[in-house]
Design brief:
With 267 residues, the protein is of the alpha/beta class. Helices cover 37% and strands 27% of the residues. It has helices at 2-22, 35-40, 67-79, 93-98, 162-172, 185-193, 204-213, 239-252, 255-263, and strands at 43-49, 52-53, 57-60, 63-65, 81-87, 104-105, 119-135, 153-158, 177-182, 199-203, 217-219, 225-234. Strands 7, 8, 9, 10, 11 and 12 form a six-stranded mixed β-sheet that branches. The chain has a three-stranded parallel β-sheet with strand order 5-1-6. Helix 5 (162-172) links the parallel strand 8 (153-158) and strand 9. Helix 3 (67-79) crosses helix 8 and helix 3 (67-79) packs antiparallel against helix 9. The longest helix has 21 residues, at 2-22. The site of glutamine (GLN) has 12 residues, from loops.
Length: 267
Amino acid sequence: MKKYLKTILATTMILSMTAALAGCGGTTDEQADGADATDSGAETLVMATSADFPPYEFFEGQEVVGIDADIAKAIGTKLGCEVKIEDMNFDAIIPSLTAGKADFAMAGMTVTKDRLKSVDFSDSYATGVQVVIVKEDSTIKSVDDLFAEGAQHTVGVQTTTTGDLYTTKDIEKKNLGTVERYTKGADAIAALTTGKIDCVVIDKQPALKFVEANEGLKILETEYVAEDYAIALAKGSELTEKINTALQELIADGTIQGIIDTYIKAE
Ligand code: GLN
């Protein structure tokens, strides 16, 4: 009996030591659904995302898949942790980190000065570009048309994204048009196809998917802004350094590029 107890204790200690060494123990370990943790001996990290952003994150049946989901899994494997993906609206992601409800966020999220005031970012793992989607017969021919003197366009964006931040600053604040904010990128696209708005400013990769899925839309050739995507974490999170180490290894051995190439075919 005694021996049995000792074995259990030793095993438990080894398991928790492994988890500690591996870098789990994020803010939400205790809150997270413990089933996986108990079954496999691995701890759980909760990842916040907004699964309406193909090919970075989207639903395939009940499951969230995509570049970010695959990279998160690869990082989880390196750290010896299970990754549990929580889907939410994009504007809820940063609040979920600051409230300690998620350990990290991957959502094709751009590093911005403003966001750095409330969260930390990992090293960048991909680049993105803001583009403009218009109807095929639109009078808007280039991005500069949006900023031309006397311009008065209605621009659709996903709320709190960088598309929202840039157009608010460059268009709305300068009285060059109106910005309509939608919870989901797909809702902005629907407003464009029904003629409620004149264009949508959104990241290029989801833009390509939306244009492919909707007749009569095109992406302007001139691009708006280039950006860096990174993983967001609560300020001061101990996980940031561990994630960066894992990311650098996954970049160096080609895993990240392999994942990106699976979802984005060379143009
Ligand atoms: N890259 C943009 C941003 O960070 C959009 C991200 C998204 O909609 N998932 O704001």
